[in-house]
């Protein structure tokens, strides 16, 4: 079946699904394969649960309501690109080392004040997630915010070939996925593939004009629209405070966010300048920023048993960890306690980067610290080092914590939100 024909089938379906546990009546099921599963084996189950059709790529599973293609994943990607090309929606591509998902949510909150928008669900930002986001674009969608993640070279370029963004923004270039990118320079090169696509196609780029890497990369490129705290050539936005929540001043208006940490200032700024570019009134931009409340373990403020807890356990890398620690040090609060978990995907830099964090903790003057994970277990530090979460649990069971201000941060694989059950 040709892509244009499959697209007509898709338009008659209620949506797209790749997981039989989430099938809705009338869905178009794509039988994707993984390392430990073959989606073709679940096609019949998908149909039984109400899917209108199932796209498969193994002939032995053929049957009624099944569409046989050469490669299900490639077909999903091609269908997404075809749908994108046949949509009038403007596409905003978003990538970066830190803050992508928060920035995406802020942009969506601001732009949805005026436009019909769709945005990446959660962090479904890879070679499967990006197509699924594009296929969620409806006939009346005006703007789609597409988050793009990557852990190696050429991945962003590939995602751009599917999404073909009209606009783009890179949050920052940090020490994330160093193992796959081959170091910081590799991160810069890989993330900049979004810039490369936009410049080749003469598209608009949103930028943080205070970021020296972005300034250098974009040079004299004409179609750029940015914010700055000091360069008068760009839209002026200023940080008022971040103790604990980020408050901002733009055009004399104060915007009070629900986000902690100075590192979220630029994320808010990105949403503000996109709102300005798309002619959203400043009062509505303010409403969009102030209406966003973080969830899913991302800089959440939780009050529990008289403790104020900052739960930032969705992800971590050396850049975000350092920023979180420096912000926590500036915050007012009683009896500060740190629970820090390992940072993943650092390759040969793992020991060095974990040691730097341990050194930073001491430099910032923290007293109550728990380091969790096999990488932190190897660093030189005077603070308790627990190789596993179970060891941390045993340690905490014998302690009675006074009323405290607590920061919990680590990579997703550490699942440090489990600490909440122990406090």
TrEMBL record:
Source taxon at top rank: Bacteria
Binding residues annotated for ATP, in chain numbering: 96-102
Domain Mur ligase C-terminal: start-end pairs: 298-383
EC number: 6.3.2.10
Single GO cellular component term: cytoplasm
GO MF annotation: an example: ATP binding
Enzyme superclass (EC): ligase
Subcellular location: Cytoplasm
Catalytic activity: D-alanyl-D-alanine + UDP-N-acetyl-alpha-D-muramoyl-L-alanyl-gamma-D-glutamyl-meso-2,6-diaminopimelate + ATP = UDP-N-acetyl-alpha-D-muramoyl-L-alanyl-gamma-D-glutamyl-meso-2,6-diaminopimeloyl-D-alanyl-D-alanine + ADP + phosphate + H(+)
Main location: cytoplasm
Domain Mur ligase N-terminal catalytic: 14-83
Domain Mur ligase central: residue ranges: 95-274
Pathway: Cell wall biogenesis; peptidoglycan biosynthesis
Gene3D superfamilies: Mur ligase, C-terminal domain (3.90.190.20), Mur-like, catalytic domain (3.40.1190.10), MurE/MurF, N-terminal domain (3.40.1390.10)
Keywords: ATP-binding, Cell cycle, Cell division, Cell shape, Cell wall biogenesis/degradation, Cytoplasm, Ligase, Nucleotide-binding, Peptidoglycan synthesis
InterPro entries named among the record's database cross-references: Mur-like_cat_sf, Mur_ligase_C, Mur_ligase_C_dom_sf, Mur_ligase_cen, Mur_ligase_N, MurCDEF_CellWall_CoF430Synth, MurE/MurF_N, UDP-N-AcMur_synth
GO biological process: cell division; cell wall organization; peptidoglycan biosynthetic process; regulation of cell shape
Functional description taken from the UniProt entry: Involved in cell wall formation. Catalyzes the final step in the synthesis of UDP-N-acetylmuramoyl-pentapeptide, the precursor of murein.
Matches recorded under HAMAP family: MurF
Family designation: Belongs to the MurCDEF family. MurF subfamily.
Protein name according to UniProt: UDP-N-acetylmuramoyl-tripeptide--D-alanyl-D-alanine ligase
Organism annotation: Maribacter cobaltidurans
